[in-house]
Amino acid sequence: MHEKPIVEKIVALIKAELDRHGRGSRLHGVTIRLGELSGIKPEPVRLYFDELTRGTSLQGATLEFEEVGPGVRCTDCQAEVEAEEGRPIDVKCPACGSTSIERLTGEEVEVVSIDLR
Question: To the nearest whole number, what is the mean pLDDT of the chain?
Answer without folding.
Answer: 91
